[in-house]
Design a protein that fits this description.
326 residues, alpha+beta, Jelly Rolls, six-stranded antiparallel sheet, 6 helices, 12 strands, 41% helix, 23% strand, elongated
Length: 326
């Protein structure tokens, strides 16, 4: 005959096994799903979700383990480390790169939750002085709230940038550097006190390191451009001749494939001026995949220029400001 105690032990072991398998499957599947990677701000939101998600994983494991608090906390951290490492290596199946910082975030979420939970349990264990009781509970509450601070912060940043739409990038915002990546170029942000007719506020200076393919790639927060007809910007190129700015767009459906609209781009010189690119010209190009204007993921702004004479050692700079839709 199996005793009641043995049945309870078997039931607990079965429960732990089921919980462990479910958590493992959820973590692995979560890492294989398409992530928030449209731009660097989306990546920061995804990173913050790591902290929240593994705090939840730690909660499920910790509350399931039939051990004393200290042993359960240690076992939970070890299991979280194992699951985090497993999920990072599993990411390669989904074509993603391993990021050990994600493992650090996973552990941070688990430790924050465990610290808060242990403190809360401590206040219930025996009668404590009122000050110690409420202080511990306040710290516990703050620790739980801190789990959501990075997520809330980056979500608010994303909302503030989206509220500026149809401005894509004006280089004035605190977080604008998260929206673009230089391509074979060195970027500087300059302040201007010029009139409205010229650059105003902060504008960008790109030192072009290649004559054929230098500039920047923008990762817009708002991807639906279907209701707009033009992409405009204030631009100039100094230090070269036969200078043009060409724009390429991508909807993410054709990795590595850039669609060029208005072949030859727009001619620019050392005097800044506003240039416009009609968006409808890129939707249907014979022989190339159609672009979905409601899912713009990347904008490439490329300066193409030549240096005068045989002297190729001089510098060519592209100036950009106020990139927006009309």
């Amino acid at each position: 005959m199996v005793s009641v105690a043995e049945r309870e032990v078997k039931s607990q072991l079965l429960q732990m096994l089921v919980v462990f398998l479910l958590v493992t499957v959820a973590v692995v599947v979560g890492h294989l799903l398409p992530g928030l990677n449209a731009n660097q701000i989306d990546s920061e939101i995804r990173n913050a979700l790591h902290i929240i998600g593994f705090a939840f994983v730690a909660a499920v494991i910790f509350e399931t383990l039939p051990m004393r608090t200290a042993k359960a906390a240690i076992a939970t951290v070890l299991i979280v480390v194992m699951l985090g490492a497993l999920s990072e290596f599993t990411q390669k199946l989904g074509g993603k790169e391993i990021d050990l910082m994600d493992l650090y975030r996973d552990i941070t979420g688990a430790v924050l939750y465990l610290s808060a939970r242990i403190l809360w349990r401590w206040t219930n264990a025996t009668k404590r002085p009122a000050f110690a009781h409420y202080s511990a509970r306040l710290v516990s509450t703050v620790l739980v709230a801190s789990l959501f601070v990075p997520f809330s912060y980056w979500l608010s940043v994303n909302a503030r940038i989206a509220a500026q739409f149809p401005i894509i990038l004006d280089f004035d915002g605190r977080w604008d550097s998260y929206l673009y990546v230089p391509l074979d170029a060195q970027v500087s942000l300059l302040k201007s006190e010029s009139s409205v007719e010229d650059y105003s506020g902060t504008f960008s200076e790109f030192l072009l390191l290649r004559r054929s393919w230098s500039g920047l790639r923008i990762e817009p927060v708002v991807s639906d451009w279907s209701s707009f007809e033009y992409l405009t910007m204030r631009a100039a190129i100094v230090g070269g001749y036969d200078s043009k700015i060409v724009v390429h767009l991508s909807d993410g459906a054709h990795p590595g494939y850039r669609i060029q609209h208005l072949v030859g781009g727009r001619s620019v010189g050392p005097e800044s001026r506003i240039i416009r690119f009609p968006l409808h010209g890129v939707v249907d190009i014979p022989g190339r995949p159609d672009l979905d204007p409601a899912k713009i993921t990347d904008v490439y702004i490329i300066g193409k220029t030549k240096r005068k004479g045989k002297d190729k050692s001089g510098e060519t700079k592209m100036y950009l400001d106020d990139i927006r839709l009309e």
